[in-house]
């Protein structure tokens, strides 16, 4: 082969590589498979698992309520399992406050665990899934935040990601 053909082929390979590197750097979709599509599928799968787990927990709680009440007269006081209603009932008596430290490289899992360990939230998986949502993904802001148990998951997420309230 002649030198100029090999040189042209080498230059073409270099340019294609450079364009692919730039596309990856600036998150340009040029027809290549993206990781975001697998992340959304993973998030949806985790949300389904969470819903199933919440149903099982509610069923177990109901069974636990029924066992002690077999010997006592029944009272019809349905207890809601939504987080906001539960928090508003307990907020005046048990309002827990903590300082949450967000540092570089922290994951949504660690943030959710810290909040659960501090008594701010009851279920760290819900918070982890919320922070994995594309609206908040990769938006955790470094700093120290005062959070309390009367705040909803959405309010905490907006606070630590710097999103508008």
Task: Please render the helix and strand layout as text.
Blueprint: H1 3-25, H2 35-69, H3 83-90, E1 97-102, H4 108-117, H5 124-132, E2 143-148, H6 153-161
Antiparallel strand pairs: 1-2
Helix pairs in contact: 2-5, 4-5
Characterization of the model:
- By secondary structure, this protein is mainly α.
- It has 6 helices and 2 strands; from the N terminus they run H-H-H-E-H-H-E-H.
- It has helices at 3-25, 35-69, 83-90, 108-117, 124-132, 153-161, and strands spanning 97-102, 143-148.
- A two-stranded antiparallel ribbon has the order 1-2.
- Helix 2 runs antiparallel to helix 5 and helix 4 packs antiparallel against helix 5.
- The radius of gyration is 25 Å and the shape is elongated.
- The termini are far apart.
Described by strand count, sense and barrel closure, the largest sheet is: 2 strands, antiparallel
**Total count of helical runs of at least 4 residues:** 6
Stretches with pLDDT under 50, minimum 5 residues: 73-92
- Summarize the amount of helix as a percent range: 55-70%
> What fraction strand?
5-15%
Radius of gyration: 25 Å
Shape: elongated
Order of helices and strands: HHHEHHEH
Structural class comes to mainly alpha
Give the averaged pLDDT, no decimals: 79
Report how far the terminal alpha carbons are from each other: 66 Å
Give a count of the beta strands, DSSP E runs of length 2 or more.
2
